[in-house]
TrEMBL record:
Keyword Signal belongs to the record: yes
Name listed for the protein in its UniProt record: DUF1161 domain-containing protein
Keyword terms: Signal
Signal peptide start-end: 1-19
Pfam families per record: DUF1161
Top-level taxon in the UniProt lineage: Bacteria
Length: 74
């Protein structure tokens, strides 16, 4: 029984940490590394408020889901 309660508690903490989200600069760095590993050289990543009309493709969310990372070629 103690193991079950411990597991539930750990999952709850993990969910809280996940909901907090990553800082945008950290996530942009991770995404940039993946893009460059695929051979892309000319692109931009921009953090914008969620729901704003930005030109490009949404490739991630950050800061608790309040912002989106936008990828644009060129």
């Amino acid at each position: 029984m103690k193991k079950i309660l411990l597991a539930v508690g750990l999952l709850s903490l993990a969910g809280t940490a996940f909901a907090a989200g990553k800082p945008c600069e950290e996530l942009k760095g991770e995404i940039a590394a993946k893009i460059e590993a695929n051979g892309a050289k000319h692109y931009s990543l921009t953090a914008v408020e969620k729901g704003s009309s930005a030109d490009g493709k949404v490739v991630g969310t950050c800061e608790g889901g309040t912002k989106e990372i936008i990828y644009k070629r060129g």
